[in-house]
Specification:
The protein is mainly α and 63 residues long. 21% of the residues lie in helices and 0% in strands. It binds zinc ion (ZN). Residues 14, 16-17, 19, 27-29, 32 line the site of zinc ion.
């Protein structure tokens, strides 16, 4: 039996500070969440006004 190639469980990490996250968490703390939000507001993530493409880029590839 060699069918033990289960998908590797990668611990999710805070995209802001890189700390490991608990299950269900998107950020390690409210502060990091605010930081991420701030990035959006400051245009770090340029969002084209008007039509917004509905493209979900998976989860777990945020550099
Ligand atoms: Zn964090």
């Amino acid at each position: 039996m060699s069918g033990t190639q289960a998908a590797p469980k990668r611990p999710r990490r805070c995209p802001i500070c890189g700390k490991p996250l608990a299950a269900g968490q998107r950020f390690c703390s409210e502060r990091c969440e605010q930081v991420d939000l701030g990035r959006w507001l400051t245009g770090a993530y340029a969002i084209p006004a008007g039509e917004e493409p509905e493209e979900d880029e998976g989860t777990g590839g945020q550099a």
